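Let us work through a complete example step by step.
Step 1: write down the sequence.
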Amino acid sequence: MNSRIVLSVVAGLLTLGQALNAAEEGPFTIKKNGDNYRVEIDGRLFTEYIPTGYNKPVLYPVIGPHGVGMTRNYPFKEVEGEAKDHVHHASLWFTHGEVNGISFWHNAKNTGKIIPAELVRAKGGRRGSIVSKNSWVGPDGKVICTDRTSISFYKAFGGTFVSYTVTVFASEGDVTFGDTKEGSMGIRTHPNLRLSNGKGVTTANGHALNSAGHKDKELWGKRAKWVDYWGKIDGHTVGVAIFDHPDNLRHPTWWHARDYGLVAANPFGIHNFEGKKKGVGDFKLNKGEQQQFRYGILFHEGDVQAADIAGSYAKWVEAVAVYKARTAEQTGNK
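Step 2: predict the structure and record it as tokens.
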């Protein structure tokens, strides 16, 4: 990578955890809280990593600019003015609705669960970092596959940035991620960020835009590098953007992005999104293979233009490229 490209991402690198490899001293602290892990920025709660109690590990709550909650409270608690639908839309998560024919997206008798197997790391500093190993377990108790999930937290791009990377391993046998819209890297937003009211919600004032220029309800099923939802909460304009990394499977991904505040990056559900024959979006990992999924989630102030989401996405992609190049050089794998 030449010097001009490196210079172009210096600003992003300095804020993105000092080139993703920062010193230990910094604004993030991570404290054990029962079975959970509390992530604080300068002593104030940002989020809590909740590994058990739901059918997959989740982050809840997520505190954005001005101290406002950025995700729906249900099913963690019931709050007036929020919809109580889709109990499986639990704040912020990664999973999928059809893995070897089993749904890990829904909560029901015959659905699967992502169960923590090992906490590798939970450490603060200039960035916060939680790394875990997890087992995807079917309703019969058998492990279908495993993953290594790395969640890192940064002050970057004018807001708080979450790097969410999941590497799925076909450790037990062949694994097929099925062609369904019910997936995969998802968030259920605060009701004010919804595009429309309904089911008890009367405060929706959200707007949405993706990298391809689609707006609001047009986003569903479209392919894009990123999407952004924003609106006013407690008098402040705030938003959340989700970034799909260029190295991801089938980038730019499709988006299961609904008017009621569900936003999910999904590279598998092609038949739903494009009206094609069921199965065209299937993706198979043979036993022993692995697949990585890398996403960025930015909780920001202002609308999509004020937050420069397009610019932040480009800086993130370049910062990851510099980090990967440097890591390869250090390990001798140029």
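Step 3: interpret the result. The two ends are 11 Å apart (CA to CA).
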